[in-house]
Each structure stands twice: as structure tokens, then as C-alpha cells.
Amino acid sequence: xxxxxxxxxxxxxxxxxxxxxxxxxxxxxxxxxxxxxxxxxxxxxxxxxxxxxxxxxxxxxxxxxxxxxxxxxxxxxxxxxxxxxxxxxxxxxxxxxxxxxxxxxxxxxxxxxxxxxxxxxxxxxxxxxxxxxxxxxxxxxxxxxxxxxxxxxxxxxxxxxxxxxxxxxxxxxxxxxxxxxxxxxxxxxxxxxxxxxxxxxxxxxxxxxxxxx
Length: 213
Hints:
Blueprint: H1 2-21, H2 23-37, E1 42-48, E2 54-60, H3 76-79, H4 82-90, H5 97-103, E3 107-109, E4 135-137, H6 139-142, H7 150-162, H8 166-182, H9 190-194, H10 197-208
Parallel strand pairs: 3-4
Antiparallel strand pairs: 1-2
């Protein structure tokens, strides 16, 4: 009952209330992002959601578009300003995802939506992460955020899916508040944070001859 009906109902009601209450904050942040980091204000990227359906994820941008003499974007660490670091450390860059929650692309709590290019590299067990809506926060994030290895992160996602309940969501929510207030485990370089998932998985495939189920 909770997984099928109540969880989605709570997502709609809470996300709508938050968007209304925080609308002044969102407006101020949008103006600051536009002034300090440029346009567009929102970072948009396709991610796989429930049943691997692709949706557009929204975040406030945290990096500039600075390029080298050849026109190539500079490394993340060179484009991430102090304001961008603040947005990430405080998780304020995630606020536009409440729109994704209201639309039904995401839930408040669930496995974080990763890149579409990662889809071929999940094991059968790990693919269970796509049998629920992806979340703004999840068990993997509060268990180490960006700095636990891929196998453990995906194992935490599976653990969440198999144990999904109101009690589990409350647990993750409480742990999320502690992590955000502590401003810990935040990576400044997204490449460092996520690593090369495809490369790691290809190496596993070459080593084992197949993806482990």
C-alpha cells in the first residue's frame, strides 16, 4: 500500500507545498546563479527513471562555461566557483528537482538517477534500482554520499528497493538531514565523485566474461 499509493501521494503534496513556500528562495537563487555563473540558470540532463524511462533532470548550475583557447571546456575544478561549491555543499543546487518530484519523474527518496550511458553496465540485481522512482536522496547517498565505490553504492540502492517501506524512508530522511547539516562527503569535481562508471564496468566484463547477476 505504501509503495504503490501512499509514497506517491506524499511526494505530490510535499513537493507542491515546498515549491510554494520556497518560491522566494528559488527566485533569489536563480538570480544569483544567473549573475555569478551565467545562463542558462538550470542544468538539464537526461536520466533514466522508473522502468528506465528517460526524463530530464533539473538542477541549478554550479559551474561556469569557461573554455580554453581551443574552445574546450576547462576541467570541472577550474569552472567550479566558490558560489558553486556553496550550492553543492548546502545541496541548494538540488532544489529544482522538486519540480521533477511533482511531475512524477522522481520521488523524495530512492536510488539517485545516474547517467543514461550507464544502463548497459548494471547487473540484473543492480537493475532493480529502476523498479522504483529515483530519489532526491537515497540510502547510498547517506551511507557515504559520493565517496563509496560503485559496487557498494549500487548494493545500497538494491537494499533500499528490497526494503522499501515508510520506516525505511523516514530513516533515510533523518540521515539525509544529518549529512546536509554536516556538509560532509561533497565532491567538488563531478568526475572524481562518479568516476568512470562505464570503464569500471567494462573492465569487470573483460575480467569475468559477463556481468555478474
